[in-house]
Write a sequence for this structure.
């Protein structure tokens, strides 16, 4: 798969390096040459250049530029037509972790900004340090990547990339669900900092075994949905 990294900061570099190391064609794009050269030092088979070149190269683009309208960066937004855009952005951490309610996700805003693209929310709930763990460790700990998009084909391709690295993908079938994923990331960052669990903390989806019997009584009919 041809992967373009739009913004080669910590997260863009971490994801791009891991995807390159498992055999995907990766192009690191940034506004400064220093960050792309640093990324290439960990992924020697990857390419690098401008944001525009990365957008032109990739079939799937990882978008890690936060709160800047695409039209302010790219002169021609048709470069995104029919491409899969993975939005991995979260909002800033406020003082005291007093997050405001999310009434429109960054994913929904990006989809409005580039309507002919297929925007997916994913890879926003883990710190970049997690990407140093080998595939076997990620699989053993069932580390989840939540993938939300209204575009089924795009969602499935992004889920497959997550599996390639060693994550367990869980798909949600609407861009609207990106609001939940951004709130999820806010909680993760709060437990990393306020609860002092550090950057390796994560919240994943797991399924427990069914009980052999009941000690609390079976579920009763309720008016609550």
């Amino acid at each position: 798969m041809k992967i373009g990294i739009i913004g080669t900061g910590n997260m863009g570099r971490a994801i791009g390096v891991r995807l390159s190391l498992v055999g995907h064609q990766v192009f690191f794009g940034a506004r400064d040459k220093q960050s792309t050269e640093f990324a290439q030092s960990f992924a020697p088979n990857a390419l690098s250049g401008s944001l525009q070149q990365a957008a032109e190269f990739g079939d799937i683009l990882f978008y890690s530029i936060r709160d800047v309208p695409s039209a302010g960066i790219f002169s021609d937004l048709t470069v995104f037509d029919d491409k899969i855009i993975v939005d991995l952005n979260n909002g800033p951490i406020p003082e005291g972790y007093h997050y405001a309610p999310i009434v429109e996700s960054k994913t929904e805003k990006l989809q409005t900004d580039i309507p002919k693209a297929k925007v997916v929310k994913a890879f926003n709930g883990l710190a970049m340090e997690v990407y140093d763990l080998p595939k076997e460790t990620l699989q053993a700990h069932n580390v989840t990547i939540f993938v939300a998009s209204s575009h089924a084909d795009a969602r499935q391709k992004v889920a497959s990339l997550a599996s390639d690295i060693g994550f367990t993908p869980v798909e949600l079938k609407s861009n609207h669900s990106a609001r939940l994923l951004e709130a999820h990331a806010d909680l993760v960052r709060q437990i990393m900092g306020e609860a002092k669990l550090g950057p390796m903390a994560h919240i994943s989806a797991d399924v427990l075994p069914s009980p052999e019997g009941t000690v609390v009584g079976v579920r009763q009919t309720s008016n609550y949905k």
Q: What stands out?
A: Residues 189 and 195 are 9 Å apart (CA to CA).
